Amino acid sequence: ASPWKEEPVKKFPEDFLFGAGSAAYQVEGAWNEDGKGESIWDDFMHNKPWLMIAQDGSSGDVASDSYHNLERDIQIIRELGLDSYRFSISWPRLLPSGFPDQVNEAAIQYYNNLINELLKHNIEPIVTIYHWDLSKSLQDLGGWTNPNIAQWYEDYARIVFDNFSDRVKLWLTINEPNEICYLGYGHVLEAPALNASGIADYLCAKNLVIAHARAYHLYTSQYKPLHGGRVGIVFSANWHVPLNSDSEADKLADKLHFQSKFGIYANPIFGYGGFPKEYSERVAEKSAAQGFPRSRLPEFSEEEKHFVLGSYDFMGVNHYTGQLVTAENVPEYAVPSLLDDTGADLITLNEWKQSTSPWIKWMPNSLYNQLLELGNLYPGVDFYITENGWSGSTGLVDDDRVDYLRSCLQQCLDAVADGVRLKGYYTWSLMDSFEWAFGYDARFGLYEIDFEDPKRPHTPRKSALVYKHIIKTRTIDYDYAPDSLVMTID
Ligand code: GBH
């Protein structure tokens, strides 16, 4: 029975971490300064701009210019009163060649300054080791489809731990495997835009979970005994339900869809090991029928399964929305592809409020449902919501974001009351930043950034004041309305 059940929780526990997040390519800028190497996102923006959804010539070359505005970032983090700040380290900034033959001192300086400033003000850093900006030099060798990447990633993680693990206690190995593998290698929505679904995304999936496990074991054997921190991985998890709950076909489509986006990454680490059984069987059958001599979904050896299984201290979850899943009237997907293997179509309802991002609609109670599902699937696991947020446009009175934020935090409280071991919540994002293929069209920030101005001035939105009040009182006061949009450090 849950310790929470007897006394429904109205208040967030004192040790619950309230945070906000960012990612290196989205905020740092300084893409070619101080010895930084080229990443696959630099390459994507400079050499394949036609693949962008926002056709406005934007890129992350300067972004929110956090590399030159550390004081500003610390200032706004302190104004909000965050318990914790999530940021990522840029692999090519730290290791310009992708390999540890040279370590960039300027990068160590920048991240040291950031970490030290956070700690000076009692703010817990949670650091993503890899948030999508792979060194281009490693992509030229196949990137995440090359099994050697598990070793390259471990080498990189060792440099990260050597330099920062005396002070950073919370580590996120990799952000959103599904987006890296499916959208980057299976599709063209993200770098490296390989567009080889049903093959490259599956190779990536296996190599990526092994890379994660290598970093986990490295930390656990060599750094944890000295510093006692914790290591997790971040999955994207959008809520999903069969469109017709009486239909066996819809239920199967829903299951295979969730396995294709989440299970193939989570099951090897948190489940019973290896890829999920139903999904492996489906891809093996399809592959045979298509004339492939073996399944397009690679297998794990017993040794690999054992190595990966249980390689976690907690799970990070990025959650934004959800969909209804059906097997009816499924479009003709390319063959082979992950979508064809899955055989599902995703439906959203017109009555759900639409954000500025085409992919985010407000599906009622999706976060609560997702947390409950994960809590039931993986009992005993600690969770953090590592991203959750609402995209709007420019403007400071962001009432939709305020409503969404309050609702999602209420859903967190409800999930905690029902026994889910949720330890923290990080809103996405601290400030407006470069939103990948969507450029600067989608604004997620608690703070607005003026990207037209070379100084990148920042202004708090209403949601910043509301979040600050929630953090301070550790309750959600639905009547709270700030008198003015002025933020100061308490
Ligand atoms: C997160 O991904 C990322 O981790 C974060 O860096 C990012 O800033 C944040 O989302 C907000 O965008 O409409 O077909 O082009 C969430 C997963 C992957 C969902 C890309 C939207 C585009 C789908 N996202 N996807 S489409």
Descriptive keywords:
single chain; 490 residues; alpha/beta; 8-stranded parallel β-barrel; 3-stranded mixed beta sheet; disordered N terminus; binds ligand GBH
Query: Looking across the biggest beta sheet, what order are the strands in?
Result: 1-2-3-4-5-7-12-13
Please give the count of helices: 16
Main sheet summary:
8 strands, parallel, barrel
Strand content: 5-15%
Q: Determine the fraction of residues in helical runs and give it as a percent range.
A: 25-40%
Mean pLDDT: 97
Low-confidence sequence ranges: 1-6
Calculate Rg over CA atoms.
22 Å
Distance between the termini: 40 Å
Question: What overall geometry do the principal axes of the alpha carbons give?
Answer: globular
Are any ligands bound, and if so which?
A: ligand GBH
How many beta strands in the DSSP annotation?
Answer: 15
**Structural class per helix/strand content?**
alpha/beta
Structure, briefly:
This protein is globular. The protein is 39% helix and 14% strand. It is built from 16 helices and 15 strands.
